[in-house]
Amino acid sequence: MKRLQLLVTVFALLLSLNTFANALVSIKGKVVDANTQAPLIGATLYISDLKASTSTNSNGEFTFNNIPSKGKFLLEVRYLGYKTSSKLIDLAAQQDISFALEPSVIESAEVVITGTPFSANNKTNSLAVVSVSRDKLAQSAATNLVDAIAKVPGVAQVTTGGAISKPSIRGLGYNRVLTMVDGAREEGQQWGDEHGVQVDQFSAARIEVLKGPASLLYGSDALGGVINIIDDLVPAEGTYNGNFTTNYNTNGGLTASSLMMQGNTNGFVYRGRVSYKNAYGFGYKGHVVPNAGFNEINTSAMLGLNKTWGYTHLSLSRFATNIGLVEEGPDADGNYADEDGNIISNSDAKSRSLNLPFQNINHYRAALNSNVLLGGGQLKSTFAFQRNIRKEFEETKDEPGLNLGLNSYTYDVKYSFANNGIWEPTIGLQGMYQTNRNSGEEFLVPDYNSNNIGTFAYLKRNFENGAINAGVRYDYKKIDGKDLFEDHGDHQDQIFSAFNNSFSNFTGSLGFAFDIAKNLNLKGNIGSGFRAPNIAELGANGKHEGTFRYEIGNSNLKQETSLQFDLGLTYQAENITLGLNAYSNKIYDYIYLSNLNGETIVNTDHDGNTETLPVYRFLQTDANLVGGEASVDFHLIKALHFENTFAYVKGTNKATNSPLPFIPAASLNNEIRFEPNLKGLSDSFIKVGLTNVFKQDRIDAFETETDGYTLFDAGIGTSFKTKKGKLNVWVTGQNLTNKLYYNHLSRYKLANIYNPGRNVSFGISVPL
């Protein structure tokens, strides 16, 4: 906890900067319709690098208070039915700023913060970044945050029931995809199949998904991409508001609710949130899966200052969940039985009380984010502490079998030099120190210490119609595994042998993004990636509940390195948008799990019970992943949207010229969305969609083929205007035909458990 005390101390020191701050500075402006010059009321403006936001009044006017008196920042304005617009503003000029927005039925490019050291228009970002808004997250009826973004082209999920989903980007997952929360990389034993993302899904204002190697700015584990979970910007000066959101799913009986309150008083900003979720086991066509339920409670708070010298925010959160684990699938008749062989009825399976085995996870996070204006540039920093306590209860609810305690201390410091908006240089230093300790009676990975550090230099050159960027990075990581003996009284068995490994690598990236013609944007990137083996790959030795296998690590594994070529083309006209992305990713010393020659082991638990499990070992090979994504969005009339996306990836083991394991099947998504203009209402929609997943028959020798399937979805919703803001209501349905199907990346497929059947979700969001 000494590191946490240090975070609080640093926060207090930064608060003292207010004493030396300059006089308060304000900027003003106006937002109007480009054709009629009529003021646009309620348009929202953002300065992401200052975490500041405001909105226009009845005259279309806006004001930003308590912001720096100098510096150049990207200002973005959004208004429904108009093109999103952004411009670089010079605060030292103190000029009134005007935006003339053009009506549009198509959402245009927006400002992103992922894959760039500072906010940037996505059209000038050479990396493929997709943003998912809070409304789309809420209306997805997802059971967890990763489930909510699973329809983004190129994104898939490795699932273990409704509570656990792990992101896969372009065929790469686990420690090859980095999740960012509160500006810091999440560390929560993410090497495991049944280790999901530990974050409150209600806290996400939006999620940005970066597809492709991002090691330059994020280091090891960003070899495949980044999931950046972005919280709300602070409310406007003098504002105090809140929100209550709740929804109910008919499949699994999921109830999920969240209450948030926030405010801004003379630049002192604060936010608090509490969320709760509870579900019993999911079901499919006449069956409910017993002990597949979960419950979750999340609490978080943010305190900070937004002043003339920049901002500093301290975020504290606790994620706590209990998740039931399914040990066996149904019998030949499709029924589930208890330990005594008695059939479990659907009514009994709907119990919200968890039986053995189950997981208990507590994830504590403290993050200090700051952006201090220094020497004409911006000094951005994130210091974070995380403690992940993961327990698995197998034989009794009193004492955990597996008990892992992981402490992670991370830091990320970047300085963007003063610039005129043409040359934009940035340098950075990042690092992490970790300790992991076993406290239970069973062991899967050894105790270990890990320390890694990385430094990078990045340069962006802006032009009138685009930009080019380049960068270089060096990383070093050291991991020390500890000996571990199991005491049997008269003798000791060695479970793990000590090892000391170190890894280092240079990473580089070169990219461009240009408007090569009217409405036509071309972007490309050549980037290398780096990933050191995780602790499970180096030292695993045991069975993990819910995975149906026994894993054995290899301490002699080498680091993974990659080289990816990415090319994207976007065409955006008045009534149509077209997007094409193609990539080729060569990964050297790719690490993968394999069940060689059907190897098995007889595993004995502490009660003397035995079971035969397949043995999976970690191997290495050179690998190729090639694929692409395509999207077409038609707007035949203003209120009618016809959206289509396609994604495909092919993974090949170069040593054997055979398929890589755990590659998602190709998918095609179609959705028709009608958005009528109804008197007294706003944001109204009616949608129907098809999710088409193709057969996956390119499989490794130990995998089984997965048939293709088509799911039918639909939804309806609207918003009511109130004095406090918009009250949103919606009803959405998934798999409405109650299709029986397996997703190729479902871990429960191994136990012949189908994916969830029909689900109808009811939601409401009330402003406070």
From TrEMBL:
UniProt domain TonB-dependent receptor plug: residue ranges = 126-226
Annotated TonB-dependent receptor-like beta-barrel domain residues: 249-735
Q: From what organism does this protein derive?
A: Pedobacter ureilyticus
May I ask which residue range the UniProt record assigns to the signal sequence? 1-21
Protein name, please? Answer: TonB-dependent receptor
Q: Which keywords does the record carry?
A: Cell outer membrane, Membrane, Receptor, Signal, TonB box, Transmembrane, Transmembrane beta strand, Transport
Location within or outside the cell = Cell outer membrane
The membrane-topology field of this record reads: Multi-pass membrane protein
Task: Please report which protein family the annotation says this sequence is part of.
Answer: Belongs to the TonB-dependent receptor family.
